[in-house]
Design goal:
Blueprint (H helix, E strand, L loop, with lengths): L38 E2 L26 H22 L10 H8 L4 E2 L2 E2 L1 H11 L28 E3 L5 E3 L8 E6 L5 H15 L2 E5 L4 H4 L6 E2 L10 E10 L6 E6 L11 E5 L11 E6 L1 H5 L8 H11 L52 E2 L26 H22 L10 H8 L4 E2 L2 E2 L1 H11 L28 E3 L5 E3 L8 E6 L5 H15 L2 E5 L4 H4 L6 E2 L10 E10 L6 E6 L11 E5 L11 E6 L2
Parallel strand pairs: 8-11, 20-23
Antiparallel strand pairs: 1-9, 2-3, 4-5, 6-12, 7-9, 7-12, 9-10, 10-11, 13-21, 14-15, 16-17, 18-24, 19-21, 19-24, 21-22, 22-23
Helix pairs in contact: 1-2, 8-9
Length: 619
């Protein structure tokens, strides 16, 4: 595995003096004894709460020497999460910044698929801000539509069903207030500086030599130790903590790679600390999140012109043709009134019963899995975007995997009390494996997606990222057995055998005959096991023009359903008494209320209370 960073000395890719913008000082620590013996941001202060963000993969959908970009944004995404937790006490859904932005905007200066420099990436982010991955997903190349203009102001884009992509103006950006590098002359000083920085503000970015047999063959489960001297560094990673092995007394760093969760210890490795193993103790960089950024996640500055184009042309899914007369706005789900794409009887595999609830009064007046039981802990997973890198009518796949990813998180939390890093399942798997039966870019059926997952299991996004089409390398064989792949720098992609798969024990649909029964069934299911998947009509003017900040209300009767979303909770407006559903879309965080919307409850708005599907994960 040839890595991205190709220094010829133990420094950074571009060499030279360290660019920095330092405003504050950390507490003066004179000895390692002044810091904890063990520290791991995946288990904050031994509380069971992970404040790190998801492991990513630079090797799919194709290989690219972008480790420098991945390490930079992973550490910074962690620091956003950590800083917000420290300020508010809330554990929110992850913010996953875009490594693709650094590739796009760094290609003429600080980085590309042939290597890059995290120091100058920090400098660029400080000057320009950076969007999240729902604005600009990783494609490991430069998109053909990107112009030669001001890259900083063209970071966020969306696409239409006719293949056009355009810039979303004034998207939500994340900023850093200061950035710098570690200052040291000895390995002991590196340890002191690195541990002080990690402990007080979060993970740091370091370079290392990655071409050793020990590292290339690492399978996880032990501490990497290697006293050989190597020339320079060839890779960039992020250190999230440290520890001491109790049986041997070996000190180690806890390091995140960017090859996916199937690599090493679920994407991580332990390497001996204090001996400059693999030259990992030569350089370190960090950036501090702008304080105002931590609290303010609104995006009122988003251009209404851009949002209107986005919603008019692609609000949710894509299309076959049931919504005739609507032009390109026809959505993916093309029911003529029967609720689900494929119609027919509901496939189900039901093993257990929920507690019997006979009245809505037996359930909480409000419930939101983004704020579990009012604790400030979000048990939902990240909002995703089906409209980039190209538009595809895959709302059915996104709603299915988002609700199931949430339920994995919820079930694990209930079982262990731990709040682990998010598992983000792959909607691309459902596109790849459903194209001959239950779904494609022209629509799909969550019920049969659940059936397929029950039979075959499903991998996460680091195995199979969303590309909104079917990959050219995919053969006509057993799709279930070829879900996970990786690529090399020669352009070859191959299947990984025996990846981690997530499975469901049972699945089914809501059974009801009246709107009141739908509410009762849906709320009972959501409250006890997590978000559900529903279909809706998405071509109404009110929905297409939704900008966030209010409850959607519409008494018009519409034909059938054209879109699929997931309901994560409900509530009642304190001022008006209007009851509502809390619904997640799949058009990215720049849509609606950070990717969500509120819709009036109990009136079958947009035919949303016509069908509901659920699945129970095995954890």
């Amino acid at each position: 595995m040839v890595e991205a960073q190709t220094d010829k000395d133990p420094g950074w890719y571009l060499g030279g003096n360290d660019p920095e913008h330092v405003l504050t000082s950390l507490p003066d620590i004179q000895s390692l004894n002044d810091l904890p013996e063990n520290w791991d941001w995946r288990n904050y202060n031994n509380t069971g709460i992970s404040l790190t963000t998801s492991v990513l993969s630079q090797m799919v959908p194709r290989a690219c020497g972008s480790c420098w970009a991945f390490a930079t944004i992973s550490a910074l995404s962690d620091r956003i999460r950590i800083a917000k937790f420290k300020q508010t006490g809330h554990v929110d859904t992850e913010v996953l910044l875009s490594p693709q932005v650094l590739l796009d905007c760094g290609m003429r200066s600080f980085g590309s698929c042939r290597g890059g420099d995290p120091r100058y990436a920090h400098k660029w982010i400080h000057e320009n801000g950076i969007v999240d991955s729902t604005c600009n997903p990783y494609i490991a190349s430069h998109p053909s539509w990107i112009g030669s203009g001001d890259c900083a102001n063209t970071q966020c884009h969306t696409c239409t069903m006719n293949g056009d992509c355009f810039v979303v103006e004034n998207p939500m950006k994340y900023h850093i207030s200061e950035y710098g590098t570690l200052k040291f002359t000895t390995s002991k000083e590196f340890q002191l500086q690195a541990m002080n920085e990690i402990y007080h503000r979060g993970p740091i970015v370091v370079s290392m030599y990655s071409l050793t047999p020990e590292f290339k063959q690492y399978k996880g489960g032990y501490i990497l130790r290697d006293r050989k001297k190597y020339p320079g560094t060839t890779h960039v990673v992020s250190i999230v903590g440290w520890g001491i092995e109790p049986d041997t007394g070996i000190k180690f760093w806890i390091v995140r790679n960017s090859i996916g969760t199937h690599w090493g210890d679920h994407g991580y490795f332990h390497v001996e600390r204090g001996d400059n193993t693999f030259n990992i103790e030569n350089k370190g960089a960090s950036a501090f999140v702008a304080p105002k950024q931590v609290v303010d996640y609104t995006h009122e500055g988003v251009s209404m012109h851009a949002v209107q184009n986005q919603i008019d042309l692609l609000a949710a899914c894509a299309a076959t043709g049931s919504a005739k007369g609507e032009g390109d706005v026809a959505e993916v789900q093309t029911n003529k009134g029967d609720g689900w794409f494929l119609g027919g009887n509901d496939p189900e595999h039901v093993l257990t019963s929920l507690p019997e609830v006979t009245s809505i009064d037996d359930l909480p007046e409000s419930w939101d899995w983004r704020d579990y039981n009012g604790t400030g802990i979000s048990l939902t997973t990240s909002v995703l975007n089906q409209m980039v890198p190209r538009a595809c009518g895959s709302c059915w796949a996104f709603a299915t995997v988002s609700a199931l990813s949430d339920r994995i998180r919820i079930a694990r939390f209930k079982k262990t009390g731990r709040l682990d890093t998010e598992v983000l399942l792959s909607p691309q798997v459902l596109l790849d494996c459903g194209m001959r039966s239950f779904g494609s870019c022209h629509g799909g059926d969550p019920r049969y997606a659940h059936k397929w997952i029950h039979q075959n299991g499903i991998v996460d996004l680091t195995c199979n990222p969303y590309i909104a089409s079917h990959p050219s390398w995919m053969g006509g064989g057993d799709c279930a057995a070829t879900q996970c792949h990786t690529c090399n720098l020669k352009g070859e992609c191959f299947v990984l055998e025996d990846p981690v798969k997530y499975r469901i024990s049972e699945y089914g649909t809501l059974n009801f005959t009246t709107p009141e029964e739908f509410q009762l069934q849906a709320m009972n299911e959501i409250y006890h096991r997590g978000p559900i998947v529903v279909s809706m009509y998405s071509l109404s003017p009110e929905y297409r023009q939704f900008k966030g900040g209010y409850i959607l209300r519409d008494s018009t009767q519409y034909p059938g359903t054209t879109h699929v979303v997931s309901i994560v909770g409900w509530g009642t407006d304190a001022k008006t008494g209007v009851k509502y559903w809390i619904v997640r879309n799949s058009d990215g965080t720049n849509w609606g209320d950070n990717g969500f919307f509120l819709a009036e409850r109990g009136v079958n708005i947009y035919n949303m209370e016509g069908h509901g599907a659920w699945a129970v994960p095995i954890v």
